[in-house]
Structures are given as structure tokens and as C-alpha cells.
Amino acid sequence: MKKGFWTILIIGCLGAQALRAQSMPENQQAFIDFYGDTVYTPGIRAMQVPLQASISYEAIKQFYNEIQQRPTTQLINQLLAYKASKQLDDWLFYQLIRTAAESISPKKDNYHRYTLYKWFLLNETGYSAVTRLRNDTLLLYVQSNEQVFDIPSMLYNQAQYICLNYHDYSSNINFKQGGFKDISIVGRNSMAKDFSYKINRMPDFNPDSYAIKPIQFEYGQRNYEFKVKVNQSIKQLFNNYPSVEYAIQFNAPLSHATYQSLIPALKQTVAKMDQKKGVDYLMHLTRSSFAFENDVTLYGKDKRLSPEQTLFAEYSDCEDRAAFFFYLVKEIYNLPMIVLSYPQHVTVAIQFDKPQGNPIVYKGNQYWVCEPTPQLKNLKIGQGIPSLKKEAFEVVYEYQPAQR
Question: What's the CA gap between 317 and 304, in Å, rounded?
């Protein structure tokens, strides 16, 4: 058979596929990729609404009124169904909303339009979102009662709203200049839920997207190595995640693959040790396995990493190590703990089953400092950093196991 025939046949097949794609119902063509998972988004193409080049209150109002006339029910229901089936927390669901908005209107093509789609989707999926406009600056806020430390918030209708897109303006806006006009939705759902930054469950990343990161350290004149699975998606998922309360940071879980590559092996190793030695082992692991650098040098501001972020990151500081060590102790021993915050340092103190000496007494219970950040001196359990002995500290988080 001649080459020309094959060329004609291939072109014919491709043309037939294109015709079939064009003749397919619109909702059969709409899918988006979400961290390796294909999400069905029916009606997403029907949401195309033009936006005037010059952003204004009137243009935004016209945009929102027009999009409300579009058939969006299927898409909203599908996003909520996916959220329920995957048990997505609010921050992860917001990443899905961002992905859907990017599919409708790419951020690089029209930033204002992309932001307004996020605004619409947040309101339609049960949250209370507000936009603020000043000249060309369009800010997106969501109602949340939680405390965050490096992004703006405002009081609106006697409720706290936190800015979701401050980073898009290089985290540098002079609010003292005033002039912002708040734009809310008339007749919005009065039963809207508060947005939460708590992470109770990590997404099911594609198993093929994990890489191996060796965790190596020396303990008791013996070398240990754990081959931990880490995922590049962690960096993207938490790229714009703010500094949150310690209770949220310290209780963030590991993804399933990362957990299975580390925690069972650690449990097996410390099973041969008594409780004190096992905790000491975990303390030395945390001290020795990561390169240290402070957040101001790395990011120009405070950034609190979750345990999985700490595993993935090249560098970490005392807060990050304290959270990682806390997570290991909680998963393996589930002991009561308190988090101590000094003006320039964060560490962990643990309540052991047997007294250890030099305790900190908090609410009538004894705790012993376990320093997870490397120091010039090899500190033992119960030994704090010498230079902090006269420094005042605050207990910023108390963990009491529900069951032991």
C-alpha cells in the first residue's frame, strides 16, 4: 500500500475525530485536571461572559448579572459533589475553584475576569465572598473567623473577611490611601459557611507524581535512612497558603503515600525502644534531617510550613521543625503536648508517662521540653536552650489526646 494512501487515511481519521468532538454535547467536552485527577465540569463553556476592558463598579455589576443568567447549576452541583466525594477542605476546594476559573478565563489573559469567576463560584458554592475595587486593583475576600498573620482582613457586615488574592499584587498594597469600594452580592445566602484554612485531609495525588527523598541521620552511633515519598504538588498547593494558627499548622496531615513511606517504618524502629528513648530518637531525626534557614531570609516574611511541606522543602526553621516533630510524636505515641513560643523561637514540651526531671508545669500537668531544632549543644529531654532560660514564653497550643 502506498504512503499517500496512509496519509489520506490518517487525515481522514483526524478529521472525523474533530467532527465528532464538535458534535459532542458541550458538557461531554468539559473536564479539568486537578492535581492529576480528571474532574467533570459540565456547562463550563457556557459561562463565557465578556468583561469591559476598563474595570469599574458598573462593569462588575453587569458581569455578575449576566453570569447569573447562564446555566450554571450543573457545574455548581458537580463541583460540590466532587468536594464531598474527595472530602476536600475549604482551602483545597478553593484550589479547585481557581482551576475551574482558570479553565473558563485564563489568569494571564484577563486577571479581573478570572478573579470575578472565582468570586462567583465561591458565592454559588456556599461561601460569602466580597470584592473590593480601587482603580485597577480588584481584591477578593471571603468570610472566615480564623486568624491569619500575613494577609489583610476587614470587618464587613460585622463579620471578618480575609483577602484571597493579596499575593497577586506582590503582597504590597497601601490601604491607607483608601478609595476601595466594597462590592457584595445582593440577596446572597445568609446561611453561608465560614471559610476555613484547616487541612484535615490531603488530596489523593497521582502515585506516579511522587519522588523519593532520603532522610538520613545518625543516632546512637548508627546511621539511619528513610526513603520518603514527596510530591511536587505540595509546593503548588500551599504556594499562597498564609501563616495560620499553630493548632492548624501542627495538625495538618501527611498525604497517604508520604505517610505510608515514613510513619510505619518509624513505628517499627522505635518499637524496640522505651518511650523516652523513642521520643529522643524522633527529636534527633528532626534536628538532623533538614537544612536550617530562617523564613525572612528565604521568603522575606514568616511562613509556617506543615509537616509535609517541611519534608518537601529544602530548608526549614524552628516553627516548621516543631510542627514536624509534634506530628511524629502525635502519630506514634499520641502524648499530651504544649507548644511554647518565645519572642524568637518555637519549641515543644511533652508530657511523658514517667517523670523526667526539670518539668514545665502547665494547668497542673508536667511537661518536658524536647528541642527539635539543632543547637550548639546536644540538648537532652528536659533541657531548653540555655539563652532562653530567662526569656518569657507563651503556650500557644495545647494538645490533649482524645484517646490513648
Answer: 9
